[in-house]
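Lecture notes, part 5. Sequence design as translation. It can be helpful to think of inverse folding as translation between two languages: the language of shapes and the language of residues. The source text, in structure tokens, appears below.
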């Protein structure tokens, strides 16, 4: 049995769509899981509860941790380390392999200008410190407790997701509503985005490749990075909208953060948007002979699946 913890999120859904190519014994775990494939087993659980984590993982050969907690520092500090410890313990007890779907917050400052699997842990934010802690917990369990695990990292998302994608929220949603696109901090620098269908497919591939374990993998992300302005221009062209946009510089985001909780949370992550942010997935691409979806094709597919253009 292959089990997805956090199965209702965008990544969990795409992962489930692809896991059916490897097994028809898939367990979907979340508070209110919904079937993706006809043969899926639904397992409602509160993953902040240690006992329920153990029950959810029992009998699993491979466990995928794709949980997305509320984007708030206090929630991350309370929930993430506890969940990671519980998942590691449950996987070891059940002799389950673990695939952790991760971001790159543990890599900070100018190290984001070229992110590889070898980039050093260098968090410059409190959220980044939490993610570094999670990765260290997992790497220690691999080394000291013989856990078989993978850290699968993605850049920021784009695709069929709204509340967790700056690109989709600031650009696509605003344009679809007839408003100006928006961007944070600096629209003149390049920024990589990972296409959600590629991430889901690649995570399933990793989980079902024995040789991939006990490594860090950057998930496939097209290498032809675009600046914020170029992203806006691409959406504008495909949607028949204006290329005009509103920029929120750092001081404005900081000020607005006193009134808008999300902006307060995003301010400490400004290093990801005020300089070049390049996510290098060449290791995955070469090993699996995988060609990431181009940004142009990804946007065409997104718009064809949205009822509002």
């Amino acid at each position: 049995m292959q089990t997805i913890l956090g199965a209702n999120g965008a990544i969990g859904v795409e992962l489930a769509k692809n896991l059916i190519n490897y097994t028809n014994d898939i367990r979907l775990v979340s508070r209110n899981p919904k079937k993706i494939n006809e043969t899926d087993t639904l397992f409602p659980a509160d993953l902040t509860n240690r006992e329920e984590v153990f029950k959810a993982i029992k009998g699993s050969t491979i466990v995928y941790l794709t949980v997305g907690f509320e984007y708030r520092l206090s929630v991350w500090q309370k929930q993430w380390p506890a969940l990671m410890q519980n998942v590691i313990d449950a996987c070891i007890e059940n002799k389950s392999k673990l695939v952790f779907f991760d971001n790159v917050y543990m890599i900070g400052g100018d190290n984001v200008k070229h992110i590889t699997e070898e980039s050093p842990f260098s968090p410059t934010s409190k959220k980044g410190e939490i993610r570094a802690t999670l990765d260290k917990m997992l790497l220690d369990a691999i080394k000291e407790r013989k856990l078989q695990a993978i850290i699968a990292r993605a850049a920021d998302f784009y695709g069929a997701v709204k509340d967790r994608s700056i690109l989709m929220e600031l650009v696509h949603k605003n344009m679809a509503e007839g408003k100006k696109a928006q961007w944070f901090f600096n629209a003149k620098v390049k920024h990589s985005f990972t296409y959600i269908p590629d991430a889901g497919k690649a995570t399933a591939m990793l989980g079902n490749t024995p040789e991939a374990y006990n490594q860090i993998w950057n998930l496939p992300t097209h290498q032809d990075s675009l600046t914020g302005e170029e992203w806006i221009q691409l959406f504008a062209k495909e949607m028949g909208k204006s290329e005009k946009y509103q920029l929120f510089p750092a001081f404005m985001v900081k000020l607005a953060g006193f009134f808008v909780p999300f902006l307060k949370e995003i301010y400490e992550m400004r290093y990801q948007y005020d300089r070049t942010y390049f996510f290098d997935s060449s290791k995955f691409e070469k090993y699996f002979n995988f060609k990431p979806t181009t940004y142009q094709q990804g946007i065409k597919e997104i718009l064809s699946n949205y009822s509002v253009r």
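The translated text above is only one of many valid answers, since several sequences can fold into similar shapes. The longest strand covers residues 97-102.
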